[in-house]
Design a protein that fits this description.
Blueprint lengths: L1 H12 L10 H47 L1 H9 L3 H12 L6 E2 L2 E2 L6 H7 L5 H14 L14
Antiparallel strand pairs: 1-2
Helix pairs in contact: 1-2, 2-3, 3-4, 3-6, 5-6
């Protein structure tokens, strides 16, 4: 990149070489090659910066998801947003914040039944269970009627 930029600067400062019949052909060939090389290098650098940014975002997303998967309370608040306090009350009552809680067909943080788990999903991590419960919560009109435990008003 430095060499190509240097060649371009040289010809910017020595324009006469591009029109002098003795040097014209060679000078134009070298200038065009330097411009192409510089453009290719800039494009490669831009792709590398884009890929680096994508990898950083992916690593941050994985780190956040791992943290949320380990902490039921954080996962619930992350997923439920402004309904966090209510969701925490429901999950505490339903499962004591345990992702492995079981009661007959009911499983997980929010004690979702087998048909609800099929419809809205289910998994082992707190984050996956909170996301499934949030989908169910939204589908029910953002009220807690499907759950036995209700948040205090």
């Amino acid at each position: 990149m430095k060499q190509d930029a240097s060649v371009i600067r040289f010809f910017d400062n020595h324009r006469w070489l591009l029109t002098d019949p003795r040097f014209e052909d060679e000078a134009n060939v070298r200038l065009m090659a330097a411009r192409r090389g510089l453009a290719a290098t800039k494009a490669k650098a831009a792709r590398a910066r884009t890929e680096l940014a994508r990898r950083k975002r992916a690593a941050e997303r994985r780190r956040l998801e791992a943290e949320l998967a380990r902490s039921p309370k954080k996962a619930i608040c992350h997923v439920f947003g402004r309904h966090c306090a209510q969701a925490l009350q429901v999950a505490r009552c339903e499962s004591g914040y345990r992702t492995v809680a079981r009661n007959g067909q009911y499983r997980g943080l929010f004690q979702m039944g087998s048909s609800e788990r099929q419809l809205f999903g289910h998994g082992q991590s707190a984050l996956v269970q909170a996301r499934a419960a949030y989908r169910y919560f939204v589908r029910s009109g953002k009220d807690w009627s499907p759950w036995s435990c209700k948040p205090a008003r």
